[in-house]
Amino acid sequence: MKLQGTMQVNQKNHLEIGGCDTVELAREFGTPLYVIDETLFRQNCRAYYQAFTESYGATVIYASKTLSNLAVCSMVEQEGLGLDVVSGGELYTAAKARFPMERVYFHGNNKSPEELRMALEYKVGRIVVDNRYELETLNNLAGEMGVKVNILLRLSPGVEAHTHEYIKTGQIDSKFGLVIENGMAMAGVKRALQLPHVQLTGFHCHIGSQIFELQSYAHAAEVMMGFVHNVYRETGFVAEELNMGGGLGIYYYQGDRPRPVKEYADVLMTAVKNTAAALDLPVPKVIVEPGRSIAGPAGITLYTVGAIKDIPGIRKYVAVDGGMGDNPRPALYQSKYEACVANRMHEQPVEKVSIAGKCCESGDMLIRDIALPSLQPGDILAVLGTGAYNYSMSMNYNRLPRPAMILVNNGRADLIVRREDYCDLIRNDVMPDRLRSNLVKLASSR
C-alpha cells in the first residue's frame, strides 16, 4: 500500500491526512466520506505549472470533469491554471466560483444550443468544437449575438493509447472529434475558415486516460503537427494553438508506475518542437489538460465496516456503507484500488477479503481479494486514490444519498460538499394531482 501526500500513521495507530485523524473525521462528518488533501492537490497543480508553463510557456488547464465543486475551482484558479468544462453544469460551477472566463475551455461532443449560448454569454476563452453540426450551430448562435468566438477543432488522430477500452478517446472509431485519416478533419478546417462568426485558433486531441506510456503522447504530437502542416499547405492557415489533452496515469494499485510530470512535459514538448522544426513550422502554443493526475492521488474515501459474511473455501465478504453509488469505477472499468484499516494501521494483514458495497447489485464490489487485518463491524476502511471520477460519477442508485466531501490541511477540516439527506432525494419529485387524489380516496376508504 502506498501512502501519498500528507498521509501518515499517527501515535494512535490511526491514518492521518492533512494533519487530521481519519477516525475522528469519520466520527465528526460520518461515512462514506470523501477527503481531499489540499496540500497534495495544490502540489500537483504546481508540478504541472512548473513543468509546462514555467519551463516551456505552455498553458495548463484542469479537467474539471475529474472533480468539480466551488472549492476545487477556487484552488485551481489560485494555482494559476485554466479550467476545462464539458457541460453547462460545470460551466455554471466555474462561474459561481468566479473563475476567470477567459481561462475556461468548453469541451463536449454534443453541446446543446442552450449550453453554447451560455458559453457565449459568459465569454469563455475557447470553445472546443467537436463536429460539423456543432460548428454550424455555434456560428449561427454567435451571429445572432453579434460576436465572433475563438474555437479549437477537436480531432481524432488515430493514436493507440494503452489503457482501458472505455477510456480510449483518440482512435478512429470514437464518438469524439473529426477523424484526420479519412478527410473529415480537413473538411472541418476548411468550413471553419469560411464561417464569419468563428475564429479558428488551432486544434485539440485527447488520446485517452490513465496512460503510462509517454511515447503515445509523442506520437500524437507528431501526428497533430503533421496535420498542422497539411492544413498550411492546403489553406495557408497556421495553427497558433495545439491542445494535446491530458490522461497521465496515476498510482492506484501495485504494478502502476506513474511517470513524473516533468518527464511527461519534456517528452511532449520535445516532440512538438522537433516536429515543428522538421516541417519548417512555428511552434504553436501548447495546451495540456490534466485532471486525474491532479485530483486522483489527493483523495481518499472513508467507509464504516458493517456486515461480514464468510463462505468457507469460497470468499469472505466485508460490506461497507458505500459502494458503487460513491465509486462506480470498479463496476464500470474493473478498476483496482488499495485500502487500509484506518483505525488499526500497524496491524499486519492476516486474511484475504473482498470489500462489498451496499447496493443491490452483485457487481457492487469495491475491492476483490485484498489482504487486510481481521476486520470487525465498526472499523474504518480507507480506500486510497479516490479523488478523481468518484464524486463526479456518483449517483443515487437505490436512493442512497451522496456522501459529504471535506478539504483537509494543517489539522483543519472544512466541509466543501454537504452530505445529501433523504429530503434531497425527493426534492425534484412531483406528485400529479390525479395520483394525490387517489391517495386521499384510498386513505378515506380504510
> What does the radius of gyration come to?
24 Å
Number of helices: 13
- Counting DSSP E segments of at least 2 residues, the number of strands comes to 21
Topology-level CATH name of the largest domain: TIM Barrel
| Structural class based on helices, strands and sheet pairing | alpha/beta
Terminus-to-terminus distance: 60 Å
Characterization of this structure:
The termini are far apart. The protein has 446 residues and is of the alpha/beta class. A hairpin with a 5-residue loop joins β1 and β2. The chain has 13 helices and 21 strands. α5 crosses α6 and α8 packs parallel to α9. The strands form three sheets. Strands 4, 14, 15, 16, 17, 18, 19, 20 and 21 form a nine-stranded mixed β-sheet that branches. It has two domains: 160 residues, Lyase, Ornithine Decarboxylase, Chain A, domain 1, CATH 2.40.37.10; 184 residues, Alanine racemase (TIM Barrel). About 2% of the residues have low confidence. 33% of the residues lie in helices and 24% in strands.
Q: What is the gist of this entry?
A:
This protein is α/β, with parallel strands linked by helices. 33% of the residues lie in helices and 24% in strands.
How are the SSEs ordered, and which strands pair?
Blueprint: E1 8-9, E2 15-17, E3 20-21, H1 22-29, E4 33-37, H2 38-56, E5 59-63, H3 70-78, E6 82-85, H4 88-96, E7 104-106, H5 113-122, E8 126-129, H6 132-145, E9 149-156, E10 178-179, H7 184-194, E11 198-204, H8 215-235, E12 241-243, H9 261-278, E13 285-288, H10 292-295, E14 299-311, E15 315-320, H11 329-333, E16 339-341, E17 351-356, E18 365-372, E19 380-384, E20 404-409, E21 412-417, H12 422-425, H13 433-445
Parallel strand pairs: 4-20, 5-6, 5-13, 6-7, 7-8, 8-9, 9-10, 9-11, 11-12, 12-13, 15-17
Antiparallel strand pairs: 1-2, 2-3, 4-14, 14-15, 14-19, 16-19, 17-18, 20-21
Helix pairs in contact: 2-9, 5-6, 8-9
